[in-house]
Amino acid sequence: MKGNRFFNLVKLLILLAGCVIDAFLVFKGFYAYAVLIFLLLACLAYSIYQQIHFLSQQVVEFSEAVKYHDFTRRFVVKNAKSTEGRLFTSFNQINDTYKEISMDKEIQHQYLDRVINMLNSAIIFYQLDSGKVMWVNDAFKQLFHMPHLGNISALKKKHEELYEKTMRLDVGQQQMESVQSKKGKIKLLIQSSSFETQDAVFRIVVYQNINEAMDETETKAWQKLLRVLTHEIMNSIAPISSLAETLNGRLNHFRGQEDIEDLKVGISTIQRRSQGLLHFAKSYRMINKVDEPSLVPISAAQLFEHIYQLLEPTILQKNVDVDIILKNTRLILHADVNLIEQVIINLMLNAIDAVKLNDNPYISLSAIEADGKIQVRIEDNGIGIPSDLQEQIFTPFFTTKKTGTGVGLTLSKQIMLLHKGTIFVNSEEGKGSVFILQF
């Protein structure tokens, strides 16, 4: 490398010295020698120019190749120590590096393409400004019968309803929409996100077909509800029908005052059973008529204190040890006071009933905040809930109590859903249960 630089420096010095000598010969009048030296200097200068031009041309061609991502050319290195050799070696190294990067990108692209096409959710990925579609997965093509989509604006011609609902969707939000597809009218959960690169802003929209999941869930819910309804109605109707048939037989063979007493008892029983059936129907109507909540800030400490005051006589009577645990006494809930009180009181009464056979009955009422969500927990050391029943306890009218209506937990779940929250249970038979209200 140093030798190459020295050689180039010598050529430049020779050229400079030759110019000085040639000027001196012209000044002295030795024109023939001056012309000869001039020709030699011209040859040397042309040689230097050719070398510089050749190298410049190679740099320009390499730059063009980089511009168009063409890294297939190989530069022949004759002398690794020369300027040309070192330049060509660098070009080859850059080409090899770009080939590796391109290969890695291609592998990542194929991997990502395979993963995205394995998803059941339809996905479209496009540039926000130009609308150019960068990616459409197979699920999108199959769901909306679009084998190709070059620009998002083309979606308007092919599926105007889907286009308008996609354009109206705010970035970072999700919403449920009904749209037409080749499978008919379907429900979609649509959500979008965006990201920005150095070149442009891109948007990803995901369309999740929730029809099948909803239909399956709805079918299971109806099956559970119908089983409970059938059980409850049959329990009331069958005795009434049997008793009415018996009373009708008595009337056909009426024997006087003795039968009148039996008829009174029978009619009274029918009335009582009918009232039970009416109460059952009112309970069902009550589940479907929970009002929309009026959300206000509630101090968890005050809420718990009020509930304890309401339940204190029962707690003392049942001799239950109740702890209220609240590490953050300034914790605030945004909820409907009346509805949430109803839920917590119902869960506390259930807990009191669950611990009645325990020698040391214990219940804790607590609230914590984690990951921006507030949880209210009602925990007991009671009899627990069998694992096979834990999924059914929120089903309307399902109850394991002899005097229960099976409405309380269903109402509690409805109220939590109206608060955009949920209720779930962790329980182990013989060790107790914890009901969690998550806001």
From TrEMBL:
Origin superkingdom: Bacteria
One Pfam family matching this protein: HATPase_c
Keyword annotations from UniProtKB, A to Z: ATP-binding, Kinase, Membrane, Nucleotide-binding, Transferase, Transmembrane, Transmembrane helix, Two-component regulatory system
GO molecular function terms attached to this record: kinase activity
Top-rank EC class of the record's enzyme: transferase
Stated name of the protein: histidine kinase
EC number: 2.7.13.3
Keyword Transferase on entry: yes
Secretion signal span: none
Transmembrane segments: 6-25, 30-49
Residue ranges the record marks as coiled coil: none
InterPro entries in the record: BphY/WalK/GraS-like, HATPase_C_sf, HATPase_dom, His_kinase_dom, Sig_transdc_His_kin-like_C
Domain Histidine kinase residues, every copy: 228-439
Reactions it catalyzes: ATP + protein L-histidine = ADP + protein N-phospho-L-histidine
